[in-house]
Amino acid sequence: RKEVEQDPGPFNVPEGATVAFNCTYSNSASQSFFWYRQDCRKEPKLLMSVYSSGNEDGRFTAQLNRASQYISLLIRDSKLSDSATYLCVVNDRATTSYDKVIFGPGTSLSVIP
Amino acid sequence: DAGVIQSPRHEVTEMGQEVTLRCKPISGHNSLFWYRQTMMRGLELLIYFNNNVPIDDSGMPEDRFSAKMPNASFSTLKIQPSEPRDSAVYFCASSLDREDSPLHFGNGTRLTVT
Fold first, then answer.
1. Cβ–Cβ contact A28 with B under 8 A
2. Which residue among A32, A42, A101 sits closest to B33, beta carbon to beta carbon?
3. Taking residues B59-78, what's their average pLDDT?
4. Is B26 within 8 Å of B106 (Cβ atoms)?
5. What is the pLDDT of residues A50-59, one digit of tens each?
6. Torsion angles phi and psi, residue B18, rounded to 5
7. What is the C-alpha to C-alpha distance for residues B90 and B107, in angstroms, rounded to an integer?
8. In what order do the strands lie in the sheet with A70-75?
9. Half-sphere exposure of A75 toward its Cβ, with a 13 Å CA cutoff?
10. Cα separation of B50 and B20, whole Å?
11. pLDDT tens-digit profile of A82-94?
């Protein structure tokens, strides 16, 4: 089983739609989680950290389910500018004593006019 | 506030040549990461430095790859000799030495080996 898994998509949604991505991780002791977005031919950029109680930033909501070992990202009222690849990231530092930052393969989103 | 700076942005070289990629992390960040990204394999961690010391180099493909961090503000990734299969985008990223500290990426170096 891969350490971090994501549905690669692509997800093609109309403007204004709500879309959700899931990500599963294999190490139950993992403590830190992030969502990054990556535009075509650009570097990954931090979208948001994921906190145990769940957190929201505008149209974006991240949730963590430790029991099932998955994190999710919900995008409401999607915009054309949300089209990108969304990367799930897990830091396994708690179990390795150093930063072991693992990126998922990414989920591709296309928002269609 | 300057982010992570990588150079060159693009590198085209012939098979067998030596390639050196450079990275300047964000000032104050003491963790530095080199990643390689291809369509087929996604983002792969090559090596991770903490306080200038290589901590995890298990992702370095083979002896042709080497990385150094002589001081807190500079790191290099060298490929010698280069091969066409090394063609990829190479990213450098830095972070604070805290588990909850996210990585900040440079713009990347797009390497083409012909």
1. no
2. A101
3. 95
4. no
5. 988 889 999 9
6. -85, 140
7. 9
8. A4-6, A19-25, A70-75, A60-65, A55-57
9. 24
10. 21
11. 999 999 999 877 6
